[in-house]
Amino acid sequence: MSPPAAVRVVWLGRARYAELLALQERWLRRLQAEPGPDAVSSPEAGALLLCEPAGPVYTSGLRGGLSPEETAQLRALGAEVRTTGRGGLATFHGPGQLLCHPVLDLRRLGLRLRTHVAALEKCAVRLCELRGLRDARARPPPYTGVWLGERKVCAIGVRCGRHITSHGLALNCSTDLTWFEHIVPCGLVGTGVTSLSKELQRHVSVDEVMPPFLQAFKETYKCTLVSEDPH
């Protein structure tokens, strides 16, 4: 039996969203430069890029989600607005949120895109369970993500090209949820958003959830995790 694939863990700390995207692009180029059978048999599957956004950012996905007028209004609030290549519509990223972008060659992990998305959801569900929120659950599209009742605590939007993934999940730990009031998150009318802090009625930091999240990722993806300096 071959040993489990290794995934590099790169923790940026509190960082600008642009910094995370730039690092993601470097890892994409790195994995795409390893074509052919050698790529599949490589002991390394890619990287798990993690950060806490340093400032408010609204992002739209491949299906759009923000009109020019809405974009101008959001920028007037002091937020950055970006168009990304992930699936889904508009969402918010900001301080108090764990952003996780796995840049992985799915072939090395024996996964397909659908099972990758399900694995991300499972990681977030497991983290909620470990914090005592045992009613956390994933829901089928268009409700992709992790929910507590009708309140979404974790948004998921990924991209995959040539078996290599990018983007990932955003887990609300102690996020200021009022930022979500200016958009229809992920285009889902009539649903709400929540955070671990709101549900548990205490402050839950990104630093607190990192260790159990990494453990859940390791168990779900059946890989080994190797820390790497982002610089």
Put the structure in a nutshell.
With 231 residues, the chain is α/β, with parallel strands linked by helices.
Report on this structure.
This protein is an alpha/beta fold and 231 residues long. 32% of the residues lie in helices and 30% in strands. The chain has 7 helices and 12 strands. It has helices at 17-32, 37-41, 68-76, 106-109, 113-130, 196-200, 206-221; strands at residues 6-15, 44-53, 57-60, 80-83, 91-93, 97-104, 137-138, 146-148, 151-161, 164-172, 192-193, 224-227. The strands form 2 sheets. Strands 1, 2, 6, 7, 8, 9, 10, 11 and 12 form a 9-stranded mixed beta sheet that branches. Strand 8 (146-148) and strand 9 form a beta hairpin. Helix 5 (113-130) packs across helix 7 (206-221). The protein is globular and about 50 Å long. The model has no long low-confidence stretch (mean pLDDT 91).
